[in-house]
Amino acid sequence: MRRLLTLSSFLLLLSIILVWWNNSRQPKPIELIPTLTGQPEYCLTCHADLPKISASHPVETFGCVTCHGGERLALNADLAHSSMRGGANPSDLSVVEASCGGTNCHSGSEADDRHHIQRVTTSIQSTYAGAIASIRFTFGAQVDLTPRYGINAVTDDETQTGITSLLAFDPLSEANPSIQKFGEECLTCHINAMPREGEDYSRQTGCSACHSVGEHTLTTAIPYTQCNTCHNRGNYDLRTMTFTKRDDHPILRIDDYYQPIGVFTKCEYTLDCIDCHTRSESMGDGDIHKDQASIEYVQCKTCHGTLDELPLTKTLTDPNDIAFTLAFLNPVIDLKLGDTILVTEKGEPLWNIRILPNGTYEMYGKATRQYFTFRPVMGTACEQNPDEQESHYCHECHAVEH
Amino acid sequence: MTDLSRRDFLKLLRSGFLYISGALALGGLLRFLDYEPNPAPQTEFDLGPASNFPLGSRTLLSDPPAVLLHTQSGFSALSLVCTHLGCTLEDQENGFTCPCHGSRFDAKGNVTHRPAEKPLQSLRVEVTDEGNLRLFTA
Questions:
Q1: ipTM of the predicted structure?
Q2: What is the value of pTM for the model shown?
Q3: Is B135 helix (H, G, I), strand (E, B) or coil?
Q4: Do residues A127 and A166 touch, judged by C-beta distance below 8 A?
Q5: Which of A1, A7, A10, A335 is the best mutation test for B, with the most CBs of B within 10 A?
Q6: Which of A155, A303, A382, B119 is 20 to 30 A from B128, alpha carbon to alpha carbon?
Q7: pLDDT in tens, A217-252
Q8: Strands of A340-343's sheet, edge to edge?
């Protein structure tokens, strides 16, 4: 009996020593108290080496949990990560409202221009409504091209396009095998879905599909290569509903920039997509649109004008003009009150293009910071027909051979 | 020297094990009870002797982020935490700028550029009986 008691007391001591030893092996917590929440987080204990995500989201202010979720005081990895939103990507559209929303963040009002999530979730990039409607119409599942389905169900109570809602597209409920195969093979480009496997397609989902160019980064200086992860990696064959990867391995940017069959001017392949295409074109404007063509509107004349008209301009007189905010977030140009910038037909600021005293224009590449100057068409020897102002007419003379 | 019997040795060993176990367990319990995972944020800051901040001085503080002013009216302070989302403001000519989202405030803390909508928080400053300055953030 005494032996048993001695053995038990030894085992008790051994157990307690093991607990102490195991506890002493735990990493010393690195505490962060973000100013936004005032609540301690221990995430940096393991993640101190992550690059800063962006100047607008400093970890000292936001911490990690505001965006990522997770158990802020846990030191065990499994427990700490157990309630994270969207895995490593809190911007995935399935969780984006909880991660990135909030009236002071990305689901504010349209008046404040902070309705980013509403814009993205109703955008063509997210709904794929045009492609779905087109395929269903082609294979007889609907009588016209009116969009009825999106990747996810979505509503717009303040529609400007007449489209108030889309139902969630379910390929398995379709009778036509081609539409079913479309569902299986052709839905990896919309930003709700992970892309195809392969380095060329590497991107995240949700906001990060466009805004995360590297590990743990967010940027508005989006290079064309990021757009290429969806827009230039190959073609869908609608006869077989299969995707054919590009196999030409382009070396020159002009070949890499667009589909090999494209015809483009020098500026189109020198600049990045976001230098010409506006925020509403690429990220949506808050309304549900029927297809890509109905949201894209910028053409050559938007910047160059026509024989009869100069491009539209706007002199910045309001310090709260959205142009200043955009230039602040991507400081490629030092905009000042009194500067005159170009604007689109819809009034969107082309904030990286400023008129010079001699009537020409200067432009800073949003992704490359390259400096360009250009002049308007008016007053040149251009012989364009005033009724033919679409870009493809400009290409007839200005396309670059390649 | 008295030889320990086997029985006494085991008794001594057993007692030792139990005492050490008890001490370690008590230490662990105290450590557990003493652990504060959610400490209340500091709201009072000792800034040192008031004489360090002469009349007319304008001093930027880093912890807490604030600007301390000593005018004819006495000591006053403005928080340099942006009222939009809490980033620390940068001192600029004629005011302060938020490096995160571009809000701007004039020297008195009024918003001159959104997205911030509220003015900067005025902080209470007191001179203690010992002549030190204390800053209160809440």
A1: 0.82
A2: 0.87
A3: strand
A4: yes
A5: A10
A6: B119
A7: 999 999 999 998 888 778 888 888 888 888 877 888
A8: A313-315, A340-343, A349-355, A361-364, A371-374
